[in-house]
Design brief:
mainly alpha; 62% helix; Neurolysin, domain 3; 498 residues; binds zinc ion
């Protein structure tokens, strides 16, 4: 294998894939041309390519340092692409089905689309109607989507074995150099340590947003809670792009096309309502796509994606492909969390939105939301380790395990129907968990150096620029060690909960 040619083609593939993603979800192209992109670059993901890159990675382990990091990143890239090709027929079938399904509702004559149902549910103030939408969606999930999703899962597990790993868990651990079991022990300790305060942190905010407290709330009410509609008045649609621009300006961060970021605010009928970032070339061609709808959640999404965009835009152009475009996504997620959590900062709220966010309902909502997310992802990790690691249990038995894990962590009666659709590929839940821990450490460092209002200090952005330059060369553990001289530890997030 000509490894330099492989790297060049891999970079073209990623660029083509992200461009197709951008054009489809920005509403520019009706078709989502993923299959054609995979077809053009199929040679990247043959079993032989995977095997060779795995051998190179094994040799790279001995070399250590950047050689080891690069060879492991290339192996992970090839494995993920190979899995994508093996399961893409089922994935495409699932996507088409999801886009075409409608939910029959007794209370209205017009059925609603499966994909729009979550947003409609989040906007629905009536609890009984939220329950009706959710019940209809779960029924369709179980009858229509789950048979295909189970096929996709079984096929993924089989591919991991054909490639020579003992399980999908072992494959992901080796590709990402993560000790998933070790992380799970840390998150389990976090759940136990926050058990006592959980009720007090979440009950009132849940009641305020949904009309139902923790004792009676259902999973169907959670989208309404996350939506935070009671705060809409503070987060108007017309202030969204301005507050983003003034936030970046206060840090001295460029948002013009000169830094390689194109901000797409044009309204188009088929554009995704949720903000997203598509790094087509890192650095140099990054799209930040926004549909300014307004609301707390929308502000959070734009700042999150802006964190990704700034990270990609500042990567050193001469850095190796693997460090610019591949690596541990916990790192870019940590920078994204650092920015999206600004909407919880009382100082940021008053400076950019003229809102007094001290102590009141907004702060309590943010805290409750965070604890629910942290505990939900902790439970997801425990469940996904069983789902992907189990050798003996029939897979279908794991639907109960899913419901039990989530019910225990959130104390909300959790339905089992989404046991296959609420699973992210390649343990992305672990990336989020590690990113929350890394972001906590990063934020503490910035506060220590620049004060609580670090987000108004251009010198703080200078520190971030220095970290961004390195792309994802270091993984979350290594970056944490570099930033604060201590190992990455999920216990860091405990601090906020007393
Ligand atoms: Zn993200």
């Amino acid at each position: 294998m000509d490894i330099d040619a492989y790297r060049l083609q891999a970079e073209t593939f990623i660029g083509d894939l992200n461009l197709a993603y951008y054009r489809h979800f920005a509403g520019l192209d009706r078709e989502y041309a993923v299959e054609a992109v995979y077809d053009r670059h199929a040679t990247l993901f043959t079993p032989d390519a995977v095997e060779e890159l795995r051998t190179r990675a094994a040799n790279g382990e001995m070399a250590g340092g950047d050689a080891q990091r690069r060879s492991r990143a290339l192996m992970a890239f090839a494995v993920e692409g190979h899995l994508g090709i093996q399961t893409r027929a089922i994935d495409a079938q699932l996507a088409r089905l999801e886009a075409s399904l409608t939910l029959p509702l007794g209370s209205t004559s017009t059925p609603i689309g499966f994909r729009e149902s979550a947003a409609i549910q989040a906007n629905e103030p009536d609890p009984s109607r939220r329950a009706e939408i959710e019940a209809a969606r779960l029924a369709v999930t179980a009858s229509e989507l789950n048979p295909l999703a189970l096929q996709a899962l079984e096929s993924t597990h089989a591919v991991a074995k054909v490639l020579g790993w003992s399980s999908y868990v072992a494959m992901c651990e080796e590709c990402q150099a993560i000790d998933l079991g070790g992380l799970q022990r840390q998150t389990e300790e976090f759940v136990a340590a926050t058990d006592e305060r959980y009720y007090e942190v979440v009950d009132q905010p849940l009641r305020r947003a949904t009309g139902v407290g923790l004792d009676d709330i259902g999973r169907c009410d959670l989208p309404r809670f996350f939506r935070g509609a009671e705060f809409d008045v503070h987060f108007p649609s017309q202030g969204l792009v301005t507050s983003f621009a003034t936030t970046m300006e206060a840090l001295g961060l460029d948002t013009s096309s000169a830094c390689g970021i194109t901000i797409d605010v044009t309204s188009r009928p088929a554009k995704s309502p949720r903000a997203f970032c598509a790094p087509v070339r890192v650095p140099g061609e990054i799209y930040l796509v926004v549909s300014p709808l307004g609301g707390r959640d929308d502000y959070c999404a734009l700042l999150h994606e802006a964190g990704h965009a700034q990270h990609y835009a500042h990567v050193e152009p001469t850095l190796a492909f693997e460090f610019r475009c591949l690596g541990d996504n916990s790192v870019t997620e940590a920078f994204a969390f650092l920015f999206d959590r600004l909407i919880e900062e009382p100082g940021w709220l008053s400076q950019h939105l003229g809102v007094d966010g001290r102590g009141g309902a907004l702060a309590a909502h943010a805290r409750a939301e965070r604890l629910i997310y942290l505990r939900r992802y902790s439970a997801k990790l425990a469940y996904e380790l069983k789902l992907h690691g189990s050798q003996t249990t029939p897979l279908s038995d794991l639907s109960d395990e899913y419901a039990q894990q989530l019910t225990r962590a959130l104390r909300i009666d959790w339905p089992s129907e989404s046991w296959l659709t609420d699973v992210d590929p390649c343990f992305y839940a672990a990336n989020y968990l590690r990113a929350w821990a890394l972001e906590t450490q990063l934020r503490s460092m910035l506060i220590e150096q620049f004060g609580e209002r670090w987000y108004s200090e251009p010198d703080a952005a200078e520190v971030l620029r220095e970290l961004w330059r390195d792309g994802q060369r270091l993984n979350a553990q290594e970056l944490c060690q570099q930033i604060c001289g201590a190992p990455l530890d999920f216990a860091a997030v405990l601090g906020e909960f007393g």
